[in-house]
Amino acid sequence: MDPPPATMPPFNGPTRKQNVACDACRAKKVRCLRANTTERCEQCVAKELECTSNYIEQLQNKPRRPRRFKSGDDFRTRSAAGEKRSAPDDDNSQGSQRASPVLQSRRTSGPPAESETNTTSSTRNTRDMLGVDDAMAMLAWMNPSAPSVYSRSPIKDAGGAQADLMRYLFSPTAALHHEWRYSDLSSLEMVRGGNCDMWEEQNGVVWDEAPTAAHLGLWAAGEAEMESLAIELIDSFFAIINSRLPLLDPQSFMSRFTSPMTDPGGPLPHPLLAVVLAFGAKFAENAHITSDRDETSARDPEGVTGRTRSRMVQLLAIRAREVAEVGKVWRVPTVANTQTLILMESLMCQAPLLKRKYQACHLAAASRHLSQVMDSPLDHTFNYAYKDERMRVQLALFIITGFESVFHRLRSEVFDYIVDLTPLIMSGEGAAGGSSYTASDDDAWLTAARAGAVVCRKLSADLWHPRISANGIPLSVLRDFVHEHSSWRDAYLARLGVPLQWPDSWDFVAAIKACSTDIFYHELWLVAERAVRDFGIQGGSDESSHGMMNLEVSQMRERLKHEALHSAMRIAALSAVLLEHGYLRLDPLVLYRPMYDAGMFLARQGREESRALVAGLRQYAGPYPQMWDLALEIEAVLLESAGGAGSAFPLQAASAQEVTNVLNGHQPSVLV
């Protein structure tokens, strides 16, 4: 067969060129038979259509994207060609040169020398193709102070990472680097923007203060001293906080802290460890913290004489939140993150600062995490220890959110994710796995707390929504509350509350649990009375209401007033007892709200019994300095109710005889 000719003969017939197709043929996706855009195609001629080329004109007018040159092209040749195509004036060219230091460096770089090897030339061509030199030069121009070489920090083992966490938490100055993985830069940025939501930040004062001698001494003592202090803070946490509501296992926690590399449970999550250390520091009596508290308190002005604070403790609380944010505790639903969020709610103590804006965001996030953990498809593969830990967290969260919702008027939707599953202590399940609940001596107290949380959640769901604030509280809601609350009193208060005579054998844990049970019962009467005072009773002021209805409404209102007065007096008496024993400085934000409500109730009536509550809150201000402001509020209301006569009253603790007399006169109500 003859070979093909070197050049093909021209084709005279119509050719299919997609770039000259008219709009009509392009829309119909048919072949357009025309040679250029000035002609009319056969389709448009046959159907007497207008043969337009709008699409082609738009493509021609569209600006072209810059073309990536091949690695073999000479940049200087391309630049010269570009200058010939568009020759700008001198000013524009100078501005362009000033604005493009990368191009300047590339213009002066020149081609590779002839002595380069093939490998070097290939490497240079690859870097030119990827634009590595341009990118690095641009970074150096945008941030001249940045180092020219970027290296990744070596990955540290669990022991080294935990040591870095200790360095960050106990650093006497702000950490402005990321060598320890954590930094104070974001906290400083928030302070600079005026977005402080923690009392410990004091609008940036804590960062402006110089470190105390005690804090500097701790840092100079080295890592061994910091680890010893951390162990003491962990012991303080489990002795004071975890004993009130068991959330963590002490033995497992301490073992994982001291042996992060070898413990079967692995190292502790940094957010949980940081929160535990910050919480324990509030109540620890370590020499470093005590000296730091004395030196820091001496710096405060005369207007806050008597209030104490520790800069070291403040920094621990701030940095614990920073570690939690870096650890994504709000994003990842795990049991450890749920425990961290529960503890952070009490650690940060935002309710006195935010007041009506307080929404318990940490508890709400913890409830969402727990609901996802409970719905995990791997539930049946977990061991008994994990299930016991998860049930312990569920019970603690159910109790805390129940009382928080009714005390702070939180909508029930905030904690809708929490499901009231019967705890292990109620059903006895899990005994085969050695559950600590079935063998605990605190089963009765936990059962009473859970039953009280049920009453609180129902009362919160019935009261805190817009319909009640607009129309008043239905009488049926108040009837149900009185019945359920009285039933709880008959079942638990006589056994678990404070008896007539204070037992001499009670230690801190026994005393604080009995007082908490007693105080929480009486606080609900104050909550109900305040709700009636704010919203009224539905139908109580309606003239068309039946006579018996009005009578029942009047009786209910008087009943609540009587119970509220009695409850406020009882809370004041128990606060005086705790004040005398010094237990209020060891309370982890459990009793402050009932004390504040009772103090305000008595102060509005000008009753001197509110003095004990003011004194109690000022002792409370040891671990939580913001409680000092609440004591000042009660004091101001009392002075206003008394007509402003006299000066501020003395705030010494009541004597033992006075406490006994008041306590005997305000025993729990037996009204049905």
Automatic annotation (TrEMBL):
Pfam families tied to this protein: Zn_clus
An annotated GO BP: nitrogen catabolite activation of transcription from RNA polymerase II promoter
GO terms for MF: DNA-binding transcription factor activity, RNA polymerase II-specific; zinc ion binding
Region described as Disordered: spans on this chain: 60-128
Compositionally biased region (Polar residues): 93-108
Compositional bias segments (type: Low complexity): 114-124
Residue intervals of the Zn(2)-C6 fungal-type domain: 21-53
Compositional bias (Basic and acidic residues): 70-88
Keyword entries, A-Z: Nucleus
Zinc-finger keyword on record: no
InterPro entries, sorted: Carb_Metab_Trans_Reg (IPR050797), Zn2-C6_fun-type_DNA-bd_sf (IPR036864), Zn2Cys6_DnaBD (IPR001138)
Gene Ontology CC, one term: nucleus
Repeat among keywords: no
Identification of the protein by name: Zn(2)-C6 fungal-type domain-containing protein
Organism ancestry: Eukaryota, Fungi, Dikarya, Basidiomycota, Agaricomycotina
